[in-house]
Amino acid sequence: MDKIFIEMKNVEYKYKSNLEGKPAIDSINVKIDKGEFVSIIGRNGSGKSTFAKLLNAILLPTEGNVYIKGIKTTDENHLWEIRKSIGMVFQNSDNQIIAASVEEDVAFGPENLGLPREEILKRVEKALKDVGMQDYCKYPIQNLSQGEKQKVAIAGILAMKPECIVLDEATSMLDPLSRSEVLSIVKRLNKNEGITVIYITHHMEEALNADRILFFNEGRIRKSGKPEDVFSKVDYIKKAGLDVPQITQLFYELSQEGYIDYDKSILTVEDGINAFKKILYS
Questions:
Q1: Which of 96, 196, 270, 275 is the most buried (most CB within 10 A)?
Q2: What are 41's strand-pairing partners?
Q3: What whole-number distance in Å separates Cα of residue 276 and Cα of residue 281?
Q4: Taking all residues of the chain, what is their mean pLDDT, rounded to a whole number?
């Protein structure tokens, strides 16, 4: 069985408003396996959101081909299957939620799939439980916090049982606690349900949770690899206008001053504490 879920071959995309300028996406070749958790980082305008919209045929490539489960996104006969397979969660949940109550909004997707009422109710119940919002079933959407709305948006996608979830800056408008809760939900779905995750973020600490990071700059994938491999290129990442995790930055600067040997595996505060303990007690 083929593990490849998403594949892009020589993909380019130019917006009609900028046909004479640089492509928003340029010469992208990438494969993403089923069940993989991939974080995408890059500055504003680097092509991340365009990449996301190419995945479920919101946009179609100007050049090259995008394949979802081996199906070209330009194949109109399979467009519905592609969009059922890939669920999108956007930055602002207010632009994605359309119903008056939590229950009605989560039910909207399954209703459009033409499912029987009994199946819809079952899916709504499970999806809300998956995101910890089962007690808010009858709540009016307007009474929810931004973090709670984002959980409802995720539940609405889950109720359609996608094989992949694409989160395009889905936590950028949330407070730290809500960001942590949403990330925990996504990690659990990836680990326990085997859902493929494409996680676009400006928060480097969130990107650390991925199996692989794709670093976008000027419409191209400039670096691809495990978090420790990508973030070990500290100067390169910072020159491109991004940060690395703070603890990584600290140990990198200490190594530049000659105090310690640089260890690219130090990505979290816990990693840093353990490293300091080894230095102090060795």
A1: 196
A2: 215
A3: 9
A4: 90
* CA-based radius of gyration for the chain: 20
d(CA 43, CA 38): 17
Report the alpha-carbon distance of residue 48 to residue 215 in Å, rounded: 9
Please identify which residue in the block is written with the tokens 């365009």. 50
Q: What angle do CA 167, 59, 160 make, to 5 degrees?
A: 45
Give me the pLDDT at residue 91, please.
84
CA distance 35 to 95: 28
In tens, the pLDDT along 136-167 reads: 999 999 999 988 998 999 999 999 989 999 99
Q: Exposed, middle or buried by CB within 10 Å (0-12, 13-18, 19+), for 51? A: buried
Question: What is the rounded CA–CA span in Å between residue 51 and residue 11?
Answer: 10
- Report DSSP letters for 191-205, one per residue: HHH--EEEEE-S-HH
